Structures are given as structure tokens and as C-alpha cells.
Amino acid sequence: MIDTVDEREMATAASAEAAANNNVEDAAPLSPEERVAALEAELADYKDRLLRALAETENTRRRAQREREDASKYAITSFAKDLLSTADNLHRALDSLPDAEIRDERTRSLLSGVAATERELLSVFERHGIRRIDPQGERFDHNFHQAIFEAEHAARPAGTIVEVLQPGYVLHDRLLRPAMVGVAKPPATPAAPPANPVEPL
To answer: For the chain, which residues make up each domain, given as ranges?
Structure first.
């Protein structure tokens, strides 16, 4: 039974091969012009495939380079975020005691040292592309600011930042933390008194 199946398969393969050979022999030979046209079409197809492969390779190379640059540029993001609270605390320490209230020379010297530490920290931030956002008086921008409250303000146009509760920070062009702000809104207009109803005649 097995021999019969194998013989049948071999016979089928042999007949298919013979048919293919007959087709090749029966086919009319191509003229030189037809052969040139066929080769040119094949060459154009290979050229198109090559150009597509080169373009894909270049795109992959550019994408990988951009990813490497971004990884290098923003590698310190989590470290920088951890340092923001240190910068905030230094600023709070300086704001906690106004210059007018300092009577003791030792206290003045201590605050001077805290101020120098804050300046040095901000200088290090700047060197590494970290910039403080302190938008007092600027227009509110939801990309960099977070509104905590609105306050009626006659002297400032609506949408102007009237108070900065906490400064924000950006790393190069990427937001690390939005600035927490208070925004001006127009004063409420008093309601107009109701019109006198027309009395019927």
C-alpha cells in the first residue's frame, strides 16, 4: 500500500516536470527587444525595492539617533524632580523672614548663606537645562501653569496671573512641574434692576 502511494506521487511529480519542460519548449523565443524590455522592467523593480530599503534604513537610523538624543537630554528628569523640593524649601526659608525683620547679624549671615545656596542650586539647574517658571504678571498658559484659584481683579485683565503659589520648572522644552498660580478674573457686574412693569391702561 505504501509503495503504491509513493509510486503514485513520483509519477505525478514526473508528469508535472515533463509538462513544465514541454511549456518551456513550446514557448516562442523572445526577440532581443522583448528581452531588453523584460530586463529593464526587472531592473526598475529591483531599483525601486533598493530605494525603498535604503529609505527605510535611513528612517530607522534617524529614529534611533533621535531616541538616543532624547534619552541623553532627558536622562536626569527623575533626579531633577527630586531636587525641586530642595529648591522650594530654600526659597521658603528666605521668604520666611523679611530683611526688615532681621535684627541679629548671625541671622543675617545665615540667610545670606541660604540665599547663596539657592543661587548655586539654580545655577546648576541652568547648566543642565532646568529653568524655573515664575510667571507673575504673565498670561495664563495651561501648558506651563496650573490654576489653583481665580480672584476678581479690576486692575489686571482676566487670565493674568496675579499670584504664584509655587514656581514651576522645565527641563529643556519638557515640563517638569507646572507653576501653581492664582488667576485674575473680571469683577462681577452688578445685576441690573428689573425694568418697571408697564401698568395696564
So the answer is: 130-189
